[in-house]
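Dear colleague,

Following up on Tuesday's group meeting, I ran the structure prediction for the two-component complex that the binding team flagged. I've pasted the input sequences exactly as they went in, so you can double-check that nothing got truncated or mislabelled along the way. The structure tokens for the whole assembly follow below. Feel free to forward this to whoever is handling the docking comparison.

Inputs:
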Amino acid sequence: MACRLWARQGSASPVMQSLADVIVALEEWLRSTPITLVALWIQKTPVSAFVDEHAWVEPSIQSLHILTLSMLFGSVLMINLRILGRAGRSRTMVQTVQRFMPVVWWSLLVMVISGLGLILGDVVRNFTSPIFWGKMILVALAALLSLGFQSSVLRDPAFWESPGARRAVARAAAVVATLLWCAIMVAGRFIAFAPT
Amino acid sequence: MDLQGIGRALEATPVGDFVASSLWTFPIVETVHVIALVTVIGTIAVVDLRLLGWGSRPCAVTEIAGDALPWTWGAFALAAITGTLMFVSKAHIYVQVPWFWLKMAAMLLAGINMAVFHFFTWRSVPRWDIGREVPVAGKVAAGLSLLFWVLVVCFGRKIGFVLGVYE
């Protein structure tokens, strides 16, 4: 599936094909860097071999990864719906943040740990995948935005409750945050479709 | 006609043929399926955890349910559509995979659990909507709901790993 997807020229739309070409070029560059040697070294460690040799490990870690993602995304959605005025109207922004942000942080921690387990399943494939690094950048961005959002709400709750123009900024931030997590999920799924 | 025969007939339909033969369709459909199912389980968990008393306690149960469940249903419709698209593209393979049937069984149990909760326990919700302990039946339904959806994800993920064996 993976190889076929990118190798079959002409049958995809021109946009998709040019995007695939960029990703393939980036991947070739990544392969030429010392990152490949680092990946090969990690792949030979006993932990990596354990994930590789036991068939039940990878689907189990993936299920854990998806279930924690559900907890995270559910919380992100409830917070952002509150900002958009479509949920939790009886609660203040501070109460909403106090209810859901701890779930976001704990889920993120479990996802980083289970994510490390998933990387070990095929270190070279992940470390030489531009989509993988793109996803890591997006995750770092989402974590920074969440941190900024949380401190902003606790410092200046009025901004997030206020009407008018300031509220438009808050609303836009809520939509962007939700789309950012969707983009992270798209990238996560497409690591598996990248060339090997 | 046996199950595999029905499966092959489904694959021959224009929809099945389109998903199977188009380069990007299956990966895109699968990605939408993941985003949809994550939304289903994430929003259901918000309600289930409230029923279990592990979050959102100061909020009325009806308010939490009203906020979260429309998203659950919308996302479920999307997951069902994308799931069906994936199924019809390889139907004769899916019907041979035990994990596929286990996933369907877990979803059926989740549906029965939800129906029982909705038609019996939910009728008394005005009495325990806010500031009161949720009745045991409600807590059991919430626990079972979380359990069944965890199983749906675990079985679902296993399908992807074993599909190749049956091709």
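Chain A touches chain B through 41 residues (CB under 8 Å).

Cheers,
M.
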